[in-house]
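Provenance and format

Records in this collection were gathered into a single text stream. Each protein contributes a sequence line and a token line. The two records reproduced below are adjacent in the stream.
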Amino acid sequence: MIRLSRLVVTPLLVCFFLSSFIAFAQTPENLPTEVNKAPKSITKEAKQENPLEETLTDIKGHWAGEYIEILVSRNILKGFPDNTFRPEGRVSRAEFASILIKSLHLRTRQLPNRPSFQDVLSDNWAFPYVETARAYGLVSGSPQGYFYPDKPITRLESMLMLAKAARLPLPNKKSTDIILADFIDESDLPQWARQKIAAVVQQGVFINYPDKTLIEPNLSASRAEVAVMSKMALLPQVKTRSEVAELMRQKEIAHRWVRQQATTVVSQTRLTGTLETSISSEINQLGTPVRLTIDNPLSSPLNKPLVPIGSELIGKITRIKPSGRGLHHGQIGLYFNELQLPGGQRIPVDIAIDSDDELLHGATRQGFKPVVTTVDKLLIQNDTRDNNLPLGSIFLTPDALSTPLTQPVPSLKKKWGEPVIIESGEKLKLKVKLPITVEAYSP
């Protein structure tokens, strides 16, 4: 008898301590902060996380359609047998209690033997939802002990329950008054509910389509409104199709921006290069090829090196004008349309002389070398720094006469313009006209 007694009592003691521990762990103060865990009980439906299998014929194009899809796909809300959702229909208080429990994935508490509400008995389908929501402090009934499960939930009731369930931070009184001042019917709110409704508005949970200036707290909440507000408050981490598409669009924009910033030498970038062959406004012709070696590396706006020192610019003379009488200085225009990297890769570019008119001018610091100008076989001295010779003195070219003639030439009374002469090895200042994309971007 003693052994039998021990075998009977021991399991009873274990059950007692376990039940006491569970009851303590699931007190109202211990409402879970993580709402993304799958439920362990309540009903079979609540465990299922099936995608939307049936097309609901009356939500396509509806303003709340994508929010409804999310709740239906998670078995939080259901459509009707005729494949409709009836978004303008009403939601009962019992249905809303089930929405809270399913959305938050709350675990079922030990259900009481005696129902908490006289009108939600143990054989009612909503009994586990209502009792669990009551235990967590999310719902309450009347002082007489009634829950009114079949009564349509009002907009005020739904917003108050959502504020509790989502633990929305409450604004202070001053902020509450400022937030609610935008609504025409704010005076219809009971004073004790103002802070929670302000929190719903502040956190972006509030919805009243199409008139956003009205709260309409005493009207019944539609199924569409309940779907939107429940998703916003309880499933903020779940994105609608439109939100996913916008995120993808923003990601693509950011990707393109990073790609552009990482692979592009922007326009107006300055650089210098060393001329490989001499050019002159007096000798060369339109279309003469020109090559130049880059002296400074070019980088992207993100300081990623793109064009190393030693890269070559390939171009040609696009404009040429010899010097002439009356201080008509020579001009040369250069256009570089190809960049060759040290590895041999060739990239189309648009690079020109770094000046206002993109030309090299005689008698300027860039593109001018003080030398004599060739006119047929005569050299006309225009360098006024030599005070020993009068302006306009002429020289025969070396193959004609080695001794200069110092007498003035009457036909050359006006000073001759300066040429553009740049020897190989001299530097040119250039600028990038159009952005240069150097390499394919890989994140």
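Adjacent record:
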Amino acid sequence: MIKHSRFWLGAFAGAFLITQGAQADKLYVANQGGSTVSIIDTDANNTVKSVTTSSGAVGVAVNAAGTKVYVTNSGGDTASVIDTSTDKVSATINLGNFPNGIAIHPTNGRAYASNWFSNSLSVIDTSTNSVTATISIGTNPEGVAINPTMNRVYVANVSSNTVSVIDTTNNTVVKTISVGESPHNIVINSSGTRVYVTNLKSNSISVIDASNNSVVSTLTVGNLPNNIGINPSGTHLYVPINPVNGNGAVQVINLSDNSITSTILVGLSPYGIKFNSTGSRAYVVNAKSGNVSIIDTNSDTVISTVTVGSWPMGIAVVSTNACPADSNGSTQTGIDLVKATPSNYSLFTQTQIDAAKQSGIQSCKDNPTTCGISISSGFTQAQMDAAISTAKQSCKTNPASCGITVSQNTDGSTQAGIDQCKADPNCKGTSSISGIHATYDAAKGELHVPFVDLITLGVVQTFDVYLLQRNGSFTFDLDLSRVALVQ
């Protein structure tokens, strides 16, 4: 159900578009100099909390559910487990000597932490938070990455100039790969076909074919590349380097031709880097500057810088909003506008709109015929989403084309809806005023709005209306046969 809120619908023939919600994130940043983890709210782009761990917090990883964050403490020879619902340390795990990098397998529930001075890898059962195995690898291991497609863990051995490949089914080293000088960190593309390793002293990236674990090419990059990130779509690498004109920077590599397309200036000594789930934002930890640079990957520009603790190193991203994210980022723009001037927007709350649209999408997925789609029509979810996105952008660019103008009746409900969506990860979006609702019937493909203000011949009148869903889309047209004057 969608909460009643007055809005202007100027043209009877105009379409009503239900839009999709935005994603919010929390960033967990390990501060090696302060033995703390800074938590950043990406809605406001500020540090909202600091959690004390143990000496030398350095590596960070989050489980697949987003409920637990694991932090390696290099000075304490431990890992701290942070419960993301409370942002408090819930467990401490003993590891090897000077633990460093850490990664969590998305399906088998195990975490893998490298131990710098022990030359080993600790295998952690995250269900019990206990070490179940210790694997001997190369000298001074640092970066850890997991390839769930191949059930392999890759570990960069800094002083051996190698990468150890471990079979996660039996915790054995199946291959040791020679790479460049002083390999530090590793990323793997989402399909699990390519492994990328930064070689700090060689100023290069070794590209490994995951099918046979052999180096197939070497990419030349800037000075001292000590970490690396790959966007979720697997099209670009983001590589922190030092220094460029006295600052650190991030080089962007287009993997279609291995060309460097951008060099983005950030803070001093950039190290950790992660992306949000859509890839629209990259978060870069600047160790010497003690802050995090937030990069808009559409323009490859720094849009915000957030201060954290002393000598930050590792970073992890946790999504805090279950409302579905918009692939082109336009929904976030709209929410930002509403938050800046809520009095100018008194349409249905974003939470309510999100809930109705998500309900419609799920219903359509469960039974495509309810949306007027037959199997033979060949529509895919991606095609429907693309159509929704295009229509939404058109409506945002020119609201009048959707028959919507700004209402003078402002009750602040949009901000309340945003707050509700933040507080309720399930994003139910159900609320009411005086028991009056607008109701979406997925089976009939119609939206019933009991109160809508219309301007007819210069006079504002209130009508009870029905909107009919167009086949194969989430766009609605006014049913002129069912328009009743209320007052």
